[in-house]
Specification:
This protein is α/β, with parallel strands linked by helices. It is built from 15 helices and 20 strands. The protein folds into 3 domains: 185 residues, 3-Layer(aba) Sandwich (Rossmann fold), CATH 3.40.50.880; 190 residues, 3-Layer(aba) Sandwich (Rossmann fold); 96 residues, GMP Synthetase, Chain A, domain 3. The strands form 4 sheets. A 9-stranded mixed beta sheet has the order 2-1-3-4-11-10-9-6-7, with helices on both faces. Strands 14-13-12-15-16 form a 5-stranded parallel beta sheet, with helices on both faces. Strands 17, 18, 19 and 20 form a 4-stranded mixed beta sheet that branches. The protein starts with a helix and ends in a 13-residue tail after the last strand. The chain binds xanthosine-5'-monophosphate. Xanthosine-5'-monophosphate binds next to loops.
């Protein structure tokens, strides 16, 4: 049994991912009901089912058609387990195909967007759902004929089988997406299924998560085991470290690598929080010479990333080897990373965010992984961090890329450019945070653009570089919008950068959304 299968509680809802854009949203919605949920790919669904013993199954939507020869397939035994099943869109079509129904292409081609739901039977799944509420359709095929035992609970203008059920077997199907915010009463339908029909246990909440996670770490590591772990100062590794530390105390050995690409005050912040406040065993390795040495003269962004990743692995490996008794490696891996890596190896999800964290980990260390956050989403990790008493400045902090300031320092990376960039970044952070403007922003930072432009300083003409401000809002970093700050704040930032940081003659604001631009400049 793989590491992935060993973790996470049993019970709850198993979600089979047919490649749905919204699969993680379904999992989140279920967890918001205090019910554990877990996503699996169709190929592994029965295996995971047997291990997890879920109380209900949700079959997600997906971009494919059930007739395509390589459409994602699922062992139909999942319908013989005696637990309620909710099929959403493709999930409904798959269920119909395997229960004697018929699926055809939608008559006027694909149906996308809003439509009104005419409720015909407002019991169980549709209890409390309004008449003519808006639901969100997105499908190319539809069910043309229901299998024996099924009945219609609701229809919509183009779709006679918008909500169907076989109540005896507790199979339900929705031709639209209940998990998206645009579907009115979608939350009620999911709640009706999870709590009403399936009567799932409501035992998932951040309060008891702390105790459960600590107990799991204690059990895995044992009474003598030691753990070594890299601390980046970011949310995930910090929360993971504090949890592991609660479980095993001084048997956790943290390593913080200063790569010379950090923001002002970052290293000191980590030292004061983890060493002085939490009294953790923390080793700070100043490897900035080595990183900057290897980066000298390199301008290509991908090469920069690769070099930084490789040097990090080398430095960390050397440190980990010093912890001779450590047989375990702590990591702040999150659930989306796990799902992505499963999907990347043959799963159905069609768009996978490329994951570019620094270096990954040394493969040759032969250590057992301790990953207490492996079944959690980012917002759950934040809640856990708060529960553990971590300060909001850490738990709610803006993301910072693994390769650090190197991807914000265009061209080659030198101390002569990093110092002023660090100064400008500090000014941006101070002004945004002191004015309470950070709450609406996903990220706010400065970029060093080594392009000489003319300026006047004193009585002389100068040719100096450009500092760009990047201020974006976003939900998940997949898309982002540029944002403005109040003019007086922008003026202060600009004045301070031009006066306090000596190498810039010009400050510009990046007004590009993602896509087509990315958030970072490299
Ligand atoms: P982009 O620039 O692709 O960034 O729009 C999306 C989000 O990811 C962060 N980012 C990184 N994070 N290692 C990381 O850990 C990286 O190499 C990396 N590159 C970008 C970026 O800050 C933004 O939040």
């Amino acid at each position: 049994m793989s590491q992935h299968e060993q973790q996470g509680p049993s019970g709850g809802v198993l979600i089979v991912d047919f490649g749905a854009q919204y699969c993680q949203l379904i999992a989140r919605r279920v967890r918001e009901l205090s019910v554990y949920s877990r996503i699996t790919v169709p190929e592994r669904a029965m295996f995971t089912f047997q291990h997890m013993r879920p109380q209900a199954v949700i079959l997600s939507g997906g971009p494919r058609s059930v007739y395509e020869h390589d459409a994602p397939q699922l062992d139909s035994k999942i319908l013989e387990q005696g637990v309620p099943v909710l099929g959403i869109c493709y999930g409904l079509q798959w269920m119909s195909q395997h229960t004697g129904g018929e699926v055809t292409p939608a008559k006027e081609g694909a149906e996308y967007g809003r439509t009104e739901l005419q409720v015909m039977d407002a019991q169980d799944l549709l209890a409390g759902v309004r008449q003519n509420g808006i639901v969100w359709m997105s499908h190319g095929d539809k069910v043309a004929r229901l299998g024996p035992g099924f009945q219609v609970l609701a229809k919509s203008e183009p779709c006679p089988f918008a909500v169907v059920a076989d109540r005896k077997r507790r199979f339900f199907g929705l031709q639209f997406h209940p998990e998206v915010a645009h579907t009115q009463d979608g939350g009620t339908m999911l709640k009706n299924f999870v709590l009403g029909v399936a009567r799932c246990s409501t035992n998932w909440n951040p309060g008891n998560l702390v105790d459960t996670k600590i107990a799991a770490v204690e059990q895995l590591v044992g009474e003598q085991g030691e753990v070594v772990m890299g601390l980046s100062g970011g949310v995930d590794s910090s929360v993971a470290a504090v949890l592991i530390h609660r479980a095993i105390g001084k048997r956790l050995h943290c390593v913080f690598v200063d790569n010379g690409l950090l923001r002002a005050g970052e290293r000191e912040g980590v030292e004061s929080l983890f060493r002085d406040h939490y009294h953790m065993d923390l080793k700070v390795v100043d490897a900035s010479e080595r990183f900057l040495g290897e980066l000298a003269g390199v301008s290509d962004p991908e090469r920069k990333r690769k070099i930084i990743g490789k040097v990090f692995v080398d430095v960390f490996r050397d440190e980990a080897k010093r912890s001779v008794h450590a047989k375990f490696l702590g990591q702040g891996t999150l659930y989306p990373d796990v799902i992505e890596s499963v999907a990347a190896h043959g799963g159905a999800t069609s768009t996978i965010k490329s994951h570019h964290n620094v270096g990954g980990l040394p493969k040759d260390l032969d250590l057992t992984l301790v990953e207490p956050l492996r079944d959690l989403f980012k917002d759950e990790v934040r809640a856990l961090g708060r529960e553990l008493g971590l300060p909001s400045s850490l738990v709610d902090r803006q993301p910072f890329p693994g390769p650090g300031l190197a991807v914000r320092c265009l061209g080659d990376v030198t101390r002569a450019k990093l110092e002023p960039l660090r100064g400008a970044d500090r000014i941006v952070r101070e002004e945004v945070e002191q004015n309470g403007l950070h709450k609406g922003l996903w990220q706010y930072f400065a970029v060093y653009v080594p392009q000489k432009t003319v300026g006047v300083k004193g009585d002389a003409r100068v040719y100096e570089d450009v500092c760009v401000l990047r201020l974006v809002s976003s939900q998940d970093a997949m898309t982002a919008d540029w944002e403005l700050l109040p003019t007086p704040v922008l003026k202060r930032i600009s004045n301070r950068i031009l006066n306090e940081v000596k190498v810039f003659s010009r400050v510009c604001l990046d007004i590009s959304s993602k896509p087509p631009a990315t958030i970072e400049w490299e």
